[in-house]
Amino acid sequence: MSRTPLFAGNWKMHKNVKETLEFLEDFLPLAKDIPSEIEIAIFPPFTSLYAAFEKLKGSGIKLGAQNMHWEDKGAFTGEISPPMLKEIPCDYVIIGHSERRQYFAETDDTVNKKVKSAVKYGIVPIICVGESLEQREKGETLSVVLSQVEKAIWEVQIEDGGKLIFAYEPIWAIGTGKVALPSDAQEVIGAIRGKLSQIYGSISQDVRILYGGSVKPDNIKDLMAQPDIDGALVGGASLEAKAFYQIATYNRG
Ligand code: PEP
Fold it and tell me: How far apart are CA 46 and CA 108, in angstroms?
């Protein structure tokens, strides 16, 4: 079976409505040239989602949010619910990004609640997992990452592999310019697929697993040559239309 490559641009806390529209003015003409067998999604801040949705109409480019609460409504000041994302509508939501785990007290338990909720509402979660430098140096990478995977999907039932996406993002590679060696990324991502296959059986072959961490136009090709890497979650380089386009067209030479 073949998994559609996905290039997902996580804009973090960058680009207001005006800047979002300016990016898309530049990116949409370029994106017409991206083959339909490659999927592109952007993840602007909440305040830019609706403007992005309007501008993306008819382009085939998907839209996602960077976070959400697990409840559908309630007294949760400052939070955004899954039905609010569905209303836009968003196709995807990033769950458990390491910046949320580090700065906003996101835990494996809250990640699990959000994943369950996303699946219930039909928003495909991109579940982020990854080890710190200290954990890598102590040889704990696989145990840390596989434990995050297992806890994220605890009691999550899916009928097909398209309902979940993972992103392996070593924390030491995010925003640092230090990309993982393709063979190291493959080792971890292959192990994630192995864990998914223990849990979900053959449908794990349809779950896309992305790599994230300092992906740039000049390193994406070697990462994509790895058998289990199905695309990339791109931070910094997705803020620039040309660089994001070059990443998505990595196989042009
Ligand atoms: C990210 O934030 O998910 C990320 C991978 O960032 P960067 O590409 O800038 O390292």
Answer: 23
